[in-house]
Write a structure and sequence with these properties.
With 380 residues, this protein is α/β, with parallel strands linked by helices. It has helices spanning 16-25, 42-51, 59-63, 80-89, 104-117, 131-142, 171-174, 177-180, 183-193, 272-281, 323-343, 353-370, and strands at residues 7-12, 31-37, 54-55, 70-73, 93-96, 121-123, 148-158, 197-205, 213-221, 227-236, 242-249, 252-257, 263-270, 286-292, 299-302, 305-308, 311-318. It has two domains: 7-125 and 325-350, 3-Layer(aba) Sandwich (Rossmann fold); 128-321, Dihydrodipicolinate Reductase, domain 2, CATH 3.30.360.10. The protein has a nine-stranded mixed sheet, with helices on one face. Helix 1 (16-25) packs across helix 11, helix 4 (80-89) runs parallel beside helix 5 and helix 5 packs antiparallel against helix 12 (353-370).
Length: 380
């Protein structure tokens, strides 16, 4: 496929989020929507009219179209395995909503099929395309606040749009909260800290509903013994839905706000060179000085180490950009990078097949531990 040849997109499933994502994918130059299948919901009819696409009866009809190059799966998780294999076996590349599948066994088979066919099979873990996430990765790598000691992600999510009969609550369809939702954040921290191992996990059922699980929690241990806690609770009215990530360092901490982070607050004690480096890493950040040190007061101690402290500071960085608008930027960035790879314009991808599989492994391990089942993780 050459650089200027239109890339044909086929979408299986077109609910509200499928339409949201597709509209951003189609803003990448030389991309056109060929067909939609698997649903006749109003959103699918609207998309077909808007983009002049075919609305087909079945995924089988869609994957047979020769001008479909990439299939986007915007369907519930339990359908990903069957639909991805169908598309791959018809020679299509696949971009799949998270999670990759609802079991590690399914994920392994899907990736093996993609490798055999020479096609991409990526999970939409678009957080890696957020510039703020990359900046935090650089902060960690350069140790501007010392080593990472601990982290957490807390997701106080709304269930206002999730009726009791919604597929989200059905583990046979969603895989459960760790798998359906947690994969984003397992992948995020693995990108920062390397491979992790689940050391504990719990799941809580909603009183009065025998099989409805609405809260989960896991602890994952990363390199150098760093523990990160993950909590997801789908329990809130929409107006108080919120998320927060925090990373504790030897000489400070960083807090990220929202599940698609748009803002950051950094607190710490730093010397002159570290202050300059932080302001270069986070250009335009607001710097507030909480304390200044001179003479003998510069010498401080932590973890039995000497610390040279020039100032105690707080950096406030980011903007009030609507998180849905940032989400759109990340979707476009992900789709462009993957399609540039397909076209042969680039050999690098921030998300590969392994990201979807590794995050699924962590999620399935957490799910098994929470149920006190034997954990069996197999690398591919």
């Amino acid at each position: 496929m050459n650089e200027n040849q239109p890339l044909g997109l086929g979408v299986i499933g077109m609910g509200g989020f499928g339409l949201f994502a597709t509209q951003h994918f189609l803003q990448v130059p030389n991309t056109r929507l060929v067909a939609i299948a698997g649903t006749f919901r109003e959103a699918a009819q609207q998309a077909a009219r808007r983009f002049g696409a075919q609305l087909l009866d079945s995924p089988e009809d869609l994957v047979r179209l020769p001008d479909v190059d990439v299939v986007y799966l915007a369907t519930p998780p339990f359908l990903h395995y069957q639909q991805a294999l169908l598309a791959l076996r018809h020679g299509k590349h696949v971009i799949c909503e998270k999670p990759l599948a609802i079991s590690a066994e399914q994920g392994r088979e899907m990736i093996a099929e993609a490798q055999q066919r020479g096609r991409i099979l990526v999970t939409n873990l678009m957080q890696r395309y957020n510039p703020l996430i990359e900046q935090i990765g650089e902060l960690i790598g350069r140790k501007l606040l010392g080593d990472v000691l601990h982290g957490y992600f807390e997701n106080y999510a709304s269930d206002e749009g999730l009726a009791p009969e919604h597929w989200f609550w059905d583990r046979r369809k969603s895989g459960g909260i760790f798998i359906e939702h947690g994969v984003h954040f397992f992948d995020l921290f693995e990108g920062w800290l390397g491979k992790g191992e689940v050391v504990s996990a719990q799941v809580i059922k909603r009183p009065g509903y025998e099989d409805l699980e609405d809260q989960v929690q896991a602890t994952v241990q990363y390199s150098n013994g760093v523990l990160v806690n993950f909590y997801h609770g789908f329990t809130q009215p929409g107006r108080i839905d919120r998320q927060e990530m925090r990373i504790l360092f030897e000489r400070g901490d960083v807090t990220l706000h929202e599940w698609v982070p748009t803002r950051m607050t950094l607190r710490g004690i730093v010397n002159e060179e570290e202050t300059r480096a932080l302001l270069e890493l986070f250009p335009g950040a607001r710097l507030d000085v909480s304390a200044s040190y001179g003479g003998a007061d510069r010498r401080q101690r932590g973890r039995f180490k000497d610390v040279d402290a020039f100032q105690q500071i707080q950096l406030s960085y980011g903007s009030d950009t609507h998180k849905q608008h940032l989400y759109g930027d990340l979707l476009r960035g992900m789709f462009k990078e993957q399609t540039d790879f397909i076209r042969g314009l680039s050999t690098k991808r921030r998300i590969t097949e392994q990201n979807g599989y590794r995050s699924l492994l962590t999620a399935t391990d957490a799910d098994r531990i929470a149920r006190k089942e034997q954990v069996v993780s197999v690398e591919v």
